[in-house]
């Protein structure tokens, strides 16, 4: 059985370990962390703790290294691991910049190793439900996709608040939400406009609002915030013939579709509390239908899917599905977002 | 009593008339419309119908002219009316461009007439409720205001679908929503980014999404659409200490506020259907409070408020509150929005 070594044994690495305990294709052998307290946690979890990252990388039994440190050392650790003959799965964001990622990609080529990234949210049920609904044509031609993740507790203190360590919500959550959309859409992003906010921390974005325009004109609105006391829906999608809303990760939601797109407009005005309006008069109920959405029970959303694919690629069974090339596109969108904030401009791209 | 003549007797003019029937300070005397069918409607309403706009403007009894035609002739009719010695109330959008509005402003000065615009939505109850909540400091420092009006019936056919007549949702509803925000905010707009969509009509925006950034960094997101089968809330406002949501024109809504902004982050991870998250862990209920919002019963929202102010200004009682200068700012934001769409750029402004 393949053996995994983990560098950086924080919360997310412990989550990997927990999910890999019963996994048949790989065994977690040992860990290394700069923090002695985290090494203690690893010991309690029954794992070997190495004295240094070099010791871990020198262990010939280790086939794969999980890089789960703070973001600023993803690049060097990934390259060192591949140079030591290991395949690598790296936590997201893959690196701090596209330049760093290029170096990682060169190393993967040079040492002929498989390199993947834990962009595990492609199997999130809410995302799959939205994607399937759109692809089934239930909404007609889709022109807006809104994707939001909102918390109310501010950012966790610690490294996420420090720019040099790769903190901020764009790198933490943006990387997932952008990856989902670019994985779904089979066309380039041509325009990036972004607003970022520093509500509690001056260094990093604790909230952002990103507008990505795809080549066909479809607009994706991606928002992550840590200071929202009333949340928007997780997904909101506009198509020419219907609208989709999915409330949350539990997948409660609905689609409302139009049944008589061609009906003649009636010359009627409605009188609302805010005055008369013709444009915003409600539809007759018989001209729409509602489809109730719920959790897609056939979708398996587990981090082991990412490992399955990594091992398939190592063993030559299937090509890698989460690739550095894909991560590069996400990274370039994030870089365009930071550039947009700095210049207060929309950035024309072809990503 | 002052007497009003109406040029352009469509749906909105009939609405003015209906609201002015019992109004004490002004009497509607007569109308002119190019369309004989609308003249018939005016006759049935008991109004004098003039044979031409010149005849209406030549009537010495007419003190004020309401310009309620399609938008492309607002400028010339307003100027002609003032040249004929009439004060003018013009429907929104005031003109087709800032250049046209300049000409109107010059005419008002030259002929020394009062010119106002029916930006009546400043007294809409939902808007007043939002504005009061923000100004009372209930949300802390506000950094995002989202204002949306969404219909599902497409645009009304007719002139609203024709660019040359001033059609499209930016001119129809955008002008109101932008006016509300600029009336509320005591600072310039510095950045305008806009996306427009042509879902049913190729010529004009039947949907738009506008991001206005004010000098302090506050972002206003203004969206109007005619193809949304599931609506967003009418208002959604983010402050450092709370969030406001008002559902609709009936003013149902709430504020959720934070009571322990300074509490220490607990090192806990929640496991959602979509995996673990520390950042998006929910707050403990005792750290927030909810304030239920409802219709502010003391607010009088009537078109007669606009006439009150116009007549006060004519009679020298009070200065005009809906001025051409304000309409010019709104017009310049709308022009920046169109420029943004054309260039696919954010437009730096100081408006």
Explain the overall architecture.
The structure is a homodimer of 351-residue chains. By secondary structure, chain A is an alpha/beta fold. The first copy, chain A, has two domains: 2-117, Rossmann fold; 122-300 and 332-348, Dihydrodipicolinate Reductase, domain 2, CATH 3.30.360.10. Chain A is 31% helix and 25% strand. Chain A contains nine helices and 17 strands. Chain A has helices at 11-20, 36-44, 53-58, 74-83, 98-111, 125-135, 169-184, 303-314, 324-343; strands spanning 2-7, 26-32, 48-49, 64-67, 87-90, 115-117, 142-150, 189-197, 207-214, 219-225, 235-239, 242-246, 253-258, 270-272, 275-277, 288-293, 347-348. In chain A, a hairpin with a 2-residue loop joins strand 11 and strand 12 (242-246). In chain A, helix 4 runs parallel beside helix 5, helix 5 (98-111) packs antiparallel against helix 9 and helix 7 (169-184) crosses helix 9 (324-343). The longest helix of chain A is centred in the C-terminal third of the chain and has 20 residues, at 324-343. Chain A is elongated. Chains A and B meet through helix 1, helix 6, strand 7, helix 7 and strand 8 of A and helix 1, helix 6, strand 7, helix 7 and strand 8 of B.
Short note summarizing the structure:
Two copies of one chain form a homodimer. Chain A is α/β, with parallel strands linked by helices and 351 residues long.
* CATH architecture name of the largest domain in chain A: 2-Layer Sandwich
Arithmetic mean pLDDT of chain A = 94
Strand order of the largest sheet of chain A: 16-13-12-11-7-10-9-8-17
Give the N-terminus to C-terminus distance of chain A in angstroms. Answer: 39 Å
* Molecular shape of chain A: elongated
Rg of chain A computed from alpha carbons, rounded to a whole number of angstroms: 23 Å
Unreliable segments of 5+ consecutive residues of chain A: none
Number of domains of chain A: 2
Q: In oligomeric terms, what are we looking at?
A: homodimer
CATH superfamily of the largest domain in chain A: Dihydrodipicolinate Reductase, domain 2
Biggest sheet of chain A: strands, sense, closure? 9 strands, mixed
Number of helices of chain A: 9
């Amino acid at each position: 059985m393949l053996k995994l070594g983990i560098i950086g044994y924080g919360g997310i690495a412990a989550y990997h370990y927990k999910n890999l305990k019963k996994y048949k294709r790989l065994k977690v052998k040992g860990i290394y962390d700069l923090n002695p307290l985290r090494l203690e946690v690893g010991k309690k979890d029954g794992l070997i703790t190495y004295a240094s990252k070099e010791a871990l990388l020198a262990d010939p039994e280790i086939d794969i290294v999980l890089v789960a440190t703070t973001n600023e050392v993803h690049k060097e650790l990934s390259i060192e691991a591949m140079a030591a003959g290991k395949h690598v799965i790296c936590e997201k964001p893959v690196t701090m910049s596209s330049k760093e990622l290029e170096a990682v990609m060169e190393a993967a080529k040079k040492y002929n190793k498989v390199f993947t990234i834990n962009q595990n949210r492609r199997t999130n049920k809410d995302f799959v439900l939205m994607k399937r609904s759109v692809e089934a044509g239930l909404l007609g031609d889709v022109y807006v996709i809104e994707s939001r993740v909102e918390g109310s507790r501010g950012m966790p203190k610690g490294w996420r608040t420090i720019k040099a360590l790769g903190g901020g919500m764009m790198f933490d959550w943006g990387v997932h939400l952008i990856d989902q959309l670019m994985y779904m859409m089979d066309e380039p992003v041509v325009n990036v406009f972004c607003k970022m906010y520093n509500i509690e921390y001056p260094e990093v974005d604790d909230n952002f609002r990103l507008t990505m325009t795809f080549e066909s004109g479809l607009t994706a609105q991606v928002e992550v915030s840590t200071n929202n006391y009333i949340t928007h829906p997780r997904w909101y999608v506009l198509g020419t013939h219907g609208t989709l809303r999915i409330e949350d990760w539990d997948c409660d939601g609905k689609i409302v579709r139009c049944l008589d797109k061609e009906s003649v407009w009636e010359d009627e005005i409605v009188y609302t509390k805010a005055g008369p309006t013709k444009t915003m008069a409600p539809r007759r109920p018989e001209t729409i239908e509602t489809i109730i959405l719920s959790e897609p029970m056939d979708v398996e959303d587990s981090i082991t899917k990412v490992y399955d694919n990594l091992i398939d690629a190592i063993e030559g069974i299937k090509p890698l599905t989460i690739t550095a090339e894909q991560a590069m596109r996400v990274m370039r969108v994030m870089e365009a977002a930071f550039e947009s904030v700095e210049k207060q401009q929309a950035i024309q791209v072809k990503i």
